[in-house]
Design a protein that fits this description.
Blueprint (H helix, E strand, L loop, with lengths): L26 H9 L1 H19 L20 E2 L4 E5 H14 L4 E3 L2 H21 L7 H19 L5 H9 L2 H21 L1 E2 L14 E4 L7 E4 L2 E2 H15 L6 H12 L7 E3 L1 H13 L4 E5 L4 E3 L7 H16 L9 H24 L1 H4 L2 H24 L3 H5 L15 H9 L2 H18 L4 H17 L6 H25 L4 H33 L4 H7 L5 H9 L1 H20 L4 H10 L27 H21 L4 H9 L7 H17 L27 H16 L7 H17 L10 H18 L27 H8 L16
Parallel strand pairs: 3-5, 4-7
Antiparallel strand pairs: 1-10, 2-9, 3-8, 5-6
Helix pairs in contact: 2-12, 2-14, 3-10, 4-7, 6-9, 7-8, 8-9, 12-17, 14-16, 14-17, 16-17, 16-18, 16-20, 17-18, 18-19, 19-20, 22-23, 23-24, 23-28, 23-30, 24-26, 24-28, 25-26, 25-27, 28-29, 29-30
Length: 821
């Protein structure tokens, strides 16, 4: 065998035929995006700009959102004196003047003209009958007049009696003609003066004595005249007819007959002229000057507890415009805009300092910063949406619910999401930032700041180390309950109307519950988008029915048992140093899944004394041992395991030397060199060949990964202990930890000397309890066979049977030489 064959796998070996693995795509780009300072700066700038645009553009923090008709919850007082032209009061004055303008009416003479034609037709019939009237017998006269009355009544639509026709025919023709002409003249004059129905709605009763109307004359002049009702017109007509017949014989019957003939001609002829009325009103409106309102400094604009009027809203908007007009710097920059930008920048800088002190890992991870920024922006967008919802038709139709909007804002969304995905520290600060901005956009309200900060703190505290989704909903509900209680108490102290205070309390509690439900639904999306892993997801992976764990139980039971033991060691050690114990347990359960590809090459899975490494070169065996890391990453990616699990699979051996095969290769090389002295010059096992027997790494990058690296080696080495004593276990653990430290395997993990000492103590305690010795029970003596007809032997106790089956001591160690990991 050539010397180089010891350190190179055979060309025709299974290792030489590489199979295609499923690897993570874009890993280099992701690492660049994760650590690049340029990306960090871009996140900072984008966050500042977006917060400003979402929360402040179009929002005036000098006042709060308020609608007409709602109950005000705070008092607003003018800080300075100002005046403004009031379009509302001006419009009210113009409308009042327009209402006081007399309505314009026109006279409709068409009805009178039609009636006059009918009367003239009747007069012509009288003239026809006059020629034969004297010669006609009494019966024929009556017949003619009856026929005439029926004809007139059918054609004209008014009633003429035969008796009145007889009275008129018995009068002298000249007298009759003159009376009819005078009567029509009087009737025409009455119509020209205007007639209206007694129940007409053309004008109020108090305005009927003197109405302005448009007379249809050539000049089109408008005059004021007294308008008659139909009853008054009839009285006037009768008086005029009586005056015309004064001094004549039989005047009374003739007057009555003529009156009854002309009375149907009295018709309401007053018509409202909308166009001329509107023109007159517009003319008078235009002459009204704008009303100027002056507000003194210290004057109350909005009074708490009172219904807000349209006039108060106009005054409030004028006050806002006055404040904005006086906030221009000499450079022309808006002072308020500049102040808001500086406020946002200051809050983000404070956040950076806070994270540097409490959670420095977030500042070094752009994905965590991006998640933090995105969740914050979503929460602020929800606040802005709540503010804008007050302008919708729903709240305009029910303004009594508008004051509840600040109490129904989902302020706990960001603290809850960040508390679950990142940690309690960033969640607390996110709650502070959301509370400050919510108090500003809802009107610089100190009470809302206190309530919001209290609710977000409760939400962040309740979401720490959450392992069940129901706990998230409960955290949202609990924050809503605390918010509601203090909102109710503060409302009563500030003399808020009781019904409004109760509505605010109920609204806050309902919104807290809804926020918890929404957060539960959003978590899977955010976990996948930002590659975050929550304790909830980790707890779901502890299910022993996971496909990979089921395969390991069936195909590699020794590795499965090894993984469980490493999980116990790691979990207890993580609890000792306040690391993530659940993450350690889950990662340990999956850290050796790569051994499923070639389980027989690992000693814990070898049975019957068969060792596949016996006829393999050390380099080949080392290559197979190392490959379980890449195979594990391949399986983890295929089964979509979380990022921390994949990282632990890749890091749980670091760049450790596979010392067993390395030593075996050196011994074989030395033996070959002694047999062939000429080959000794080619041997350098401490330099070039060592890289073949080291794992590819990387070394552990976080505490949990470093704990698992040490626990994996400790558990594997503990199987080779000949005698389990506290001293032997301590020496074993000390040696392994010292070896890892000397080899630099823990240099990249943020572990302190104190934490390593606590880990060592935890390993010792766990191993001594898991490798404890058992008492060897004596075997039960074989019972004598019962004689025929004798009593049956006693059945041994259940405890004795169990003891006999457990009498054989457990066998530790490997079935064949070779490393377990």
């Amino acid at each position: 065998m050539a010397l180089s064959d010891l350190f190179r796998p055979k060309a025709n070996s299974p290792v030489g035929r590489r199979r295609k693995r499923k690897t993570e795509t874009g890993l280099g780009l992701l690492q660049f995006m994760e650590r690049s300072r340029a990306v960090t700066t871009a996140i900072f700038v984008a966050t500042v700009v977006t917060i400003f645009l979402v929360t402040f553009v179009g929002v005036n923090p000098a006042a709060f959102h308020i609608l007409e008709g709602q109950q005000a919850t705070a008092r607003i007082v003018a800080e300075t004196e100002f005046s403004y032209p009031s379009p509302l009061l001006t419009q009210r004055k113009r409308e009042r003047v327009a209402r006081e303008v007399p309505q314009v009416y026109s006279i409709d003479m068409s009805g009178f003209d039609q009636f006059r034609r009918q009367v003239l037709n009747l007069e012509r019939e009288f003239e026809r009958l006059d020629a034969t009237w004297a010669a006609l017998p009494e019966a024929d006269r009556l017949s003619e007049l009856t026929i005439l009355a029926d004809t007139i009544n059918q054609r004209s639509g008014f009633h003429v009696s035969v008796r009145d026709l007889i009275t008129l025919m018995n009068a002298e023709p000249a007298t009759r003609e003159k009376l009819i002409a005078d009567g029509l003249f009087n009737l025409e004059e009455i119509h020209k003066g205007g007639i209206f129905e007694p129940d007409a709605t053309i004008a109020p009763t108090e305005e009927r004595e003197m109405l302005m109307f448009q007379v249809q004359r050539a000049g089109g002049d408008m005059v004021q005249t007294r308008v008659l009702s139909i009853e008054e017109a009839a009285t006037n007509l009768r008086i005029n007819l009586t005056d015309n017949l004064a001094g004549q014989a039989a005047s009374s019957p003739l007057t009555l007959a003529l009156f009854r003939l002309l009375r149907p001609g009295l018709q309401a002829n007053l018509r409202h002229d909308e166009a001329r009325t509107a023109a007159l009103q517009n003319k008078l409106r235009a002459e009204i000057q704008p009303v100027l309102v002056r507000v003194e400094a210290g004057e109350t604009i909005i009074e708490p507890g009172a219904r807000v009027t349209e006039e108060q809203i106009e005054k409030l908007e004028a006050y806002q415009r006055h404040l904005e007009s006086n906030r221009q710097l000499p450079t022309g920059i808006d002072e308020q805009t500049l102040g808001r930008v500086l406020l946002v920048v200051g809050l983000i800088i404070i956040a950076g300092i806070y994270l540097r002190l409490e959670d420095p890992m977030t500042l070094t991870s752009n994905s965590r910063l991006g998640l933090l920024a995105l969740v914050m922006l979503v929460n602020l967008a929800l606040l802005r949406g709540t503010l804008e919802a007050g302008y919708s038709s729903v709240f305009r139709a029910a303004p009594e619910f508008s004051p509840l909007l600040p109490y129904m804002a989902p302020i706990a969304f960001a603290p809850m999401v960040i508390g679950v995905l990142i940690g309690a520290g960033p969640a607390l600060y996110s709650g502070l930032l959301v509370s400050v901005i919510a108090a500003i956009i809802f009107g610089n309200r100190l009470d809302l700041l206190v309530l919001s900060l209290l609710a977000t703190t409760i939400a962040a505290y309740s979401c720490r180390a959450v392992r069940r989704r129901s706990r998230i909903v409960r955290a949202g509900w609990l924050s809503g309950v605390v918010f509601s209680i203090f909102a109710l108490l503060l409302g009563l102290v500030d003399r808020m109307p009781p019904d409004l205070a109760w509505k605010a309390a109920v609204g806050g509690q309902v919104m807290g519950l809804l926020t918890g439900i929404v957060v539960v639904g959003m978590l899977p999306v955010l976990e996948a988008l930002f590659r975050r892993t929550t304790d909830i997801t980790l707890l779901e992976l502890t299910d022993y029915n996971h496909p990979l764990l089921r395969r390991m139980q069936m195909e590699a039971p020794g590795t499965y048992h090894h993984s469980l033991m490493v999980a116990n060691l790691s979990e207890n050690a993580a609890n000792a140093i306040a690391a993530n114990a659940l993450l350690c347990r889950v990662c340990c359960m999956f850290h050796d899944i790569g051994k499923l590809v070639k389980p027989d090459y690992f000693s814990e899975n070898q049975r019957g004394g068969i060792n596949p490494h016996a006829d393999r070169s050390p380099a080949f065996s080392a290559l197979i041992i190392k490959s379980h890391v890449k195979e594990g990453v391949d399986l983890a990616v295929k089964h979509k395991l979380p990022r921390p699990v994949i990282d632990v699979i890749r890091q749980h051996h670091g760049t450790t030397l596979i010392r067993y095969f390395f030593t075996q290769a050196r011994e074989k090389a030395k033996a070959l060199a002694s047999a062939d002295p000429g080959a000794a010059r080619l041997l350098d096992p401490n330099a070039a060949s060592e890289s073949t027997f080291r794992y590819d790494g990387p070394r552990p990058q976080f505490k949990e990964s470093a704990i698992i690296l040490m626990a994996d080696s400790v558990e594997a080495a503990s199987r080779s202990l000949q005698k389990v004593t506290p001293q032997a276990v301590e020496e074993l653990i000390d040696g392994i930890i010292r070896e890892k430290l000397d080899d630099g395997q823990i240099d990249d993990a943020p572990l302190t000397i104190k934490e390593i000492a606590l880990i060592r103590r935890s390993f010792t305690f766990t191993l001594l309890n898991s490798l404890h010795a058992r008492v060897v029970y004596p075997k039960a003596e074989k019972a004598e066979p019962a004689s025929r007809g004798g009593a049956a032997p006693e059945r041994p106790a259940a405890g004795a049977a169990s003891a006999s089956t457990a009498a054989a001591p457990a066998q530790h160690g490997s079935a064949a030489p070779g490393p377990r990991s």
